[in-house]
Structure formats: structure tokens, C-alpha cells
Amino acid sequence: MTSNLVIVPVLWQFLIAVAQMFSWFNPRLQRKLSVSGNVIQVLIASWLLTEVYRQGILTMNAGKWPAPFGIVFVSDTFSAVLVLITSISGLAVSLFSLANIVEARMRFGYFPIMHLLFAGLNGAFLTGDIFNLYVWFEIIIISSFVLLTIGGEKPQLEGAVKYFTLNILASTIFLTAIGVLYGLAGTLNMADLALKVAAIPNKGLVEVTAILFLVGFGIKSAIFPLYFWLPASYHTPPAAIAAIFGGLLTKLGVYAMLRVFTLVFFEDPIIDTLMIILAGLTIITGSLGAMVQTNVRKIFSYLIISHIGYMVIALGIHTELAVTGAVFYMIHDIVVKTNLFMVSGLLYRVQGTHHIDRLGGFYQYYPRLSLLLAIPLFSLVGVPPLSGFWPKIDLFKAAYLEGGSFITICLAFGTVITLLVIARVWAEVFWRPAENLPERPNFRFWHLFTLAEKIQYITPIALLSAVSLIIAFRAADVHRISQKIASELMNPKNYIQTVLPDKSAEQQ
Amino acid sequence: MKSIILKKASDYLLPLLLLFSVFILLRGHYLPGGGFVGGLIASIAFVLHSFANGLNETKHLLRIHPGFLMPLGLSVSLLSGLYPMVIKKEPFMAAQWMKEPLDVIGLVGTPLFFDIGVYLVVVGVSLTIIFTLAEVA
To answer: pTM for the complete prediction?
Structure first.
């Protein structure tokens, strides 16, 4: 089915950004535009998902150029679900930004850049052209660099340099890989590539290209051994920005891997083994890193790395069950990780520090708030019946039945360490009596906040906690959607036929 | 540095360069040129003017802040893409052309408006950057 609806999520974010640039000197109006715009974005994304569910894969040939020659935008269930989850997280982040981002930062164009970042994310999820995917990656990287440095504090700039260097390196490798692939197959359309790559006689060269893609996406999604940029940079910007980054940007790399290694490249034991080893080491090093950190945001940063490994290792197993687990985990992870960084922002606002040695007594003073914060924290661990538990059933089943002992051990190790880390955070921050809290005379503590600001802090956390509770209690439905996505990913015939109706008819 | 030769020359060069930039913009669809190059030439015209007459003179000449051209150009480009989608029910960015070519300009269609948008964005961005740097220095 062709439908212009596919491009609407991208254009809408772009429109919001342009409208906000017109009101450059009026941050007040920008805030209103951002929140109302993102509410509508959630509606658009839900509409897209229902249409995709009803009519099957939707496509749109930009500029009316037919598929393998022009740029095609494709929305299968995977893309539509990710656009929806991104929009919900985006709404939460723009609500959280209202009180979390100070006016001085807003004056440097925080909101327009944030919406360009969302436009880039939606574009990357919806494009069906591999070069266009690269272009969306660039849009995201440029906007994220501005977001990371806005405010210009010294640690921010230091983190940004590390972030930018490694991400530019990843982009270069990604671009090189596209160049080699174009030289081999003579096309950039992903559906067309799927047909042509399978027919290339020189399998060795295809394998090398696949490894280049793996390295490029691997750096972006922070897998072992090139993840050092992530914990070095994610704790520096304000919590709202860290929430976008932690929730969405690394998952984009995983999305690209899932898409490219199921659609373009055929199954290859060498790549799969490589993926499993790298992902296993990612899980282990990420969780060990989280154990030794004392800064809450650094702990969460290392947990991001560790959990990226879950999804990549599942892709390495390369069966429908494993991919179901990976997709389900990704849906859960985007919501929870975005929420966690907002939680860290709230903790900082209440107690004035990020160090778990100094934080404490949260439960004693704010019992109801603590219960709210328990939802994202324990969803992350996967305590049943919270949302992290359900995808892990699929992951462990796939690892045990189809993967092997190494994968099972890695997954179990990651889960146990995550539990230990979160238990430590809970014990130190929430249960331990407050003794060592910093005294900061010029800091605007939580109890000095107006009611409106308190609401702006708590609503997004409550919203995302509610979403992760919905994922948990409607796990059967989410699982069914993940299964549908996994079967679409593993059998891309339908995708190819929708994008290239003439070509696939020719081949038969 | 005040040079009377440069000052006098820039008075003539400014309109000439601006005309040339529009020429480059219009020939861009089938021949080398287009909005990006045209926009750069136009901003060179203003930069030259500011070298000769000082930054404040150029700002006075421009009347609006160059940064305002960025959202303006973006919205022109966006609308040129949205027009076929909203009015004609065709895919985003599908080119719509007039039936008869106009005098001097030639055949006009939505790609021209996309290029005009790019032109405005490029002028806005490069002038904002250069003016900001010149103010700091």
C-alpha cells in the first residue's frame, strides 16, 4: 500500500522545529509548541501503527520516483512501533524539559534542535534506503552534538569531544560500508539490496562489508570494545537531554543492526558468532562497569551498555524466537531507560548530588515518590510482573534452546549484576538514613520548587512508569506484536514485494 | 581598514553579485548551479559589503536579522514538498510544473521553490556565522 502517512511523523517534527525557530526569542511559546506538538505526534504515531496493522506494510516513493531509483519510505510494524515508542518518550522528555532545562539553555535553541533530533529518529526508523539511513544518522548526530554542548560547561565539552570523535568515526565506517556495498550491488534501496546481495558471487567481500556495518552500528550502539564514549559523555548534560540520549540514540544503532542483518545480509555463521562474542563481552563489561561506579548517572550509563548486549546477542542467535525477545526488550528498554535518566534528574533536584555515597533517606522523606521511582528501577531488573521480566522469558528460552551455554551464562550474569546494582542503588539512596547530604546554599532544592515545577518533574516520570506498567500487564499483546515483527523481519519477502512490486514479479 | 576603492567597488559589486546569485539559482535545475551555490554567492556579496563599509552598515542594509532567513527558507522548502502531498494527493516532494514556461525565468515548478528555500537557508546560516564571528573578533 502506498500512503503519504508514512512521512507524516518526520514532517510533523520538522514543522514543529521550524515553528519554534520563528519564535526564537520567545522560549515560553516554544515550550507550549513542544508539548502540544508532541501530544499530536503521539496521535499521529498511533494512527500510523493502526493503519500498518490494518493494511500491512505502507510505502511512499518520495518525489514520485519509482522504488529502486528514488528514496522510498517504508513503514512495517517494527518501524511503526518504534515511531510510537519514540513519540511517547519524546512527549515525556519535552514535559520534563519544561522545568529541567533552564531558560538560558532554551535561548540557544534547545527545543528546535530537540525536535530536529526526533525528526531524525523517525526518519531513520521509516526510511527504506540505506544511504538515506546514513543521512538521518547524520541529522541525529549533529543535533545530539548541539544538545550535548548547549550551556557550554567544561565537563560537557569534554564529554562532547569524546562523543563526537567516536561517532564521527562510526559514521565514516558506515559510509565506507555503504560505498563498498554500492560498488558490489549497484543499488542503495534496502529491498533491492536484499535481492542483489544474495546473488553476489564473491561471498568474502560481502562478509567484509557486513563486518564494516557491524563495526559502524556497533560503535553507535555502544557495544564492546568501543563503548567508552558513552559513560564518558552521558552524565554531563542536563537530565532531560541524557534521557533522550540514553533512551533512544543507542537503540537506533540496534534498530539499524536488526534491519540490515535480517534484510540485506543473509544469515552468515561467522557474523553471527562475532556478534554473539561481542555482545557477550558487552554484557559482562557493561555490568562490571556499573558495579564499580558511584555516580548514579554513570551507573545507568553502564547499564545501558550492558542491556544493549541483550538485544545484539539475540540478533546473533538469529532465530524468530530470539528476535522476538530482542524486539520486545527494545520496546521495554526505550521506555525504561528514558525514565531512569529523568529519575536521576529528580534525585539530583531533591538531594543536590549524584553520588550514591552521599544520597540517602529518600524513602524516609518522600515515601510516595519512592514508590513511583521503584517502578522504573525494578522494571529494569525484570522483577516479575514488571516489564523487564517478559522479554527475558523469550531471550532465555532462545538462548537455552537455540543459542548455547555461553549465551545463557552471559544473559544470566547480566541479569544478576543488574539486580545487584539496582539493589545497591535502592539501599543506598532510598533506605539508608540521610547523613551526608551536601549543603548547597545557591542550589534550588526540591522543597523550594513551585507546585507547577514539581508537576512538570513528576508527570513525565509517572507517564513513562504507566507506559511500562501497561507493557507489563498487557505483556501478551506486546508479545504478539513482537512476534509479528520478528516474523516480518525473518521473512522479508513481503517487505521486498511491497517496496518493489514489479521487480519481485520479474524474479519469480 | 577604510579603502575608498573597495568601498566604491562594493557599491557596484553588491547588486551585481546578487543578480548573479539569482541567475545561478535559476539555472540550477538542469545545469550546474542551484540554491546552495547561489546562496553562497549572495552571502559573499554581503560579506564584501561589510568588509568595505563595516558590519553595522551591512546590518542596516539587510534590515532583518539574517538568522530569520533560516526558518523562512526551511518553511519555503517544506511547503514546496507539502504542496503535492496536500493539494494533489501525490507523494511528498513529487514535482509539479507549470504547463507553459515563463519569459526569462523558464519553466517554474515546485523544485524551484525548494531551491529558493535552500538559497535562503544558506544565506541565513552563513551570514549568521560570519556576523557572529566578526562581532566577537
So the answer is: 0.94
**Contact yes or no for A63 and B70 at CB 8 A:** no
Alpha-carbon distance A302 to B70, whole Å?
A: 39
Q: How far apart are CA A409 and CA A6, in angstroms?
A: 41
Q: How far apart are CA A81 and CA A45, in angstroms?
A: 8
Long-range contacts: B9-18, Cβ < 8 Å, 24+?
B9/B52, B10/B48, B10/B49, B10/B51, B10/B52, B10/B53, B13/B45, B13/B48, B14/B45, B14/B46, B14/B48, B14/B49, B17/B41, B17/B42, B17/B44, B17/B45, B17/B48, B18/B42, B18/B45
Q: Which of A246, A326, A322, A312 is nearest to A78 (CA)?
A: A326
Domain positions in chain A are 4-507
Q: Kindly tell me the burial class for residue A192, based on how many C-beta atoms sit within 10 Å of its own C-beta (0-12, 13-18, 19 or more).
A: buried
Residue of B71, B82, B93 with shortest CB distance to A22: B71
Classify the C-alpha dihedral A124-A126-A130-A131 as positive or negative. negative
Instruction: Please say whether the beta carbons of A395 and A265 come within 8 A.
Output: no
Q: What is the DSSP string of A242-308?
A: HHHIIIIIHHHHHHHHHHIIIIISPP-HHHHHHHHHHHHHHHHHHHHHHHH--BHHHHHHHHHHHHH
Find, among A10, A95, A89, the residue nearest to A44 by Cα. A10
C-alpha closest to that of A317 among A382, A227, A408: A408
Cβ <8 Å between B92 and A63: yes
pLDDT of chain B, 137 residues: tens digit per residue: 678 899 899 889 999 999 999 999 998 878 888 899 999 999 999 999 998 888 888 999 989 989 899 999 999 999 999 999 988 888 888 888 888 888 877 888 899 999 999 999 999 999 999 999 988 87
**Is B99 strand, coil or helix?**
coil
CB contact under 8 A, B91 and A15: no
Residues of chain A in contact with residue B93, where contact means CB-CB under 8 angstroms, are 62-64
- Which residues in chain B are closer than 8 Å to A7, comparing Cβ atoms? 85, 92
Cβ of A4 within 8 Å of Cβ of B70? The answer is no
Neighboring chain B residues of A11 at a CB cutoff of 8 Å: 78, 81-82, 92
Task: With beta carbons under 8 A apart, name residues in chain A contacting B75.
Answer: 18, 22
Contacts of A310 (CB under 8 A, 6+ apart): A279, A283, A326, A329, A395, A411, A414
Q: Which residue has the cell 537506533?
A: A252
ipTM for the assembly: 0.91
Q: Read off the pLDDT of each residue in A430-451 and give the average, rounded to a whole number.
A: 82
Could you tell me the three cell numbers for A495? Answer: 517487505
Residue with cell 524468530: A320
Interface test mutation site (partner A, options B86, B92, B110, max chain A beta carbons within 10 A): B92
What residues of B are in contact with residue A15 (Cβ under 8 Å)?
Answer: 78
Number of other CB atoms surrounding residue A313 within 10 Å: 30
In this complex, is the C-beta atom of B93 within 8 Å of any C-beta atom belonging to chain A?
yes
Contact A60 B92 (CB under 8 A): yes
Q: Does B75 touch chain A (CB under 8 A)?
A: yes
- Provide, as residue numbers in chain B, all residues whose Cβ is less than 8 Å from the Cβ of A61: 91
